[in-house]
Specification:
This protein is of the alpha/beta class and 181 residues long. It has one domain: Rossmann fold (3-Layer(aba) Sandwich). It is globular. It contains five helices and seven strands. The protein has a seven-stranded mixed sheet with strand order 3-2-1-4-5-7-6, with helices on both faces. The structure holds S-adenosylmethionine. S-adenosylmethionine (SAM) binds next to helix 2.
């Protein structure tokens, strides 16, 4: 129940959720890596280990990740508390890859996760979330309250259950033009 999935994600879902990541879109934060299926895909895309940080609440998973991925930072903590800690010596992150089970998390906790992560992301930073559901797993009210916009970037049937990935980013700010200028 705490993990909220019967099996780890497939390589197809790992390829989809990391498809926009490259060595330039770092540092990267990964939430809820579990056994590290997405972590492996991120490293294969050229993310240097020291530019990747894993945030995993399960103590056993966190210990296993440290052993499995030498050089990658691991924080054993709840992702909804991320807003309270400093990461990458204050350098803004470019992307967050989330394996968190949003569909089984309370709205308040999802809000905490997104609020904390966007405090660490740079202005154009992206947050990637997968879901087994038919729509974005972040309730619309949270997206509106935090000024965010979600777009589905793909779906894979080579995963059990089939899954979709959403890219969530800040809404562009409206330009204000002074009258007469
Ligand atoms: C559904 S599993 C996904 C694991 C892996 N990313 C995958 O796709 O196979 C969810 C993972 O998120 C972790 N998790 C759940 N809630 C969390 C939270 N609030 N903060 C950090 N990790 C959490 C669980 O311990 C588990 O490892």
């Amino acid at each position: 129940m705490r993990v909220a999935s019967i099996t780890p994600s497939s390589n197809a879902l790992a390829a989809l959720i990391t498809s926009e990541i490259n060595p330039q879109t770092t540092p990267v934060i990964e939430l809820g890596p579990g056994t590290g299926v997405f972590t492996r895909a991120l490293l294969a895309r050229g993310v240097p280990p020291e530019r990747l940080l894993l945030v995993e609440r399960g103590a056993e998973f966190a210990t296993m990740l440290e052993q499995r991925f030498p050089g990658v930072g691991v924080l054993a903590m709840d992702a909804s508390d991320l807003g309270r800690v400093e990461l990458f010596d204050g350098e803004p992150a470019k992307a967050v890859i989330s394996g968190l089970p949003f569909l089984s998390m309370p709205t308040r906790q999802i809000m905490g996760v997104l609020d904390g992560c966007f405090a660490h992301l740079d202005q154009d930073g992206m947050f990637y979330q997968f879901t087994y559901g038919a729509r974005c797993p972040v309730p619309r009210i949270i997206l509106e309250r935090l000024g965010l916009k979600a777009v589905r970037i793909g779906r894979t049937f080579s995963n059990f259950p089939p899954a979709a990935v959403y890219r969530i980013r800040r809404r562009p700010m409206r330009r204000l033009y002074a009258v007469g200028s």
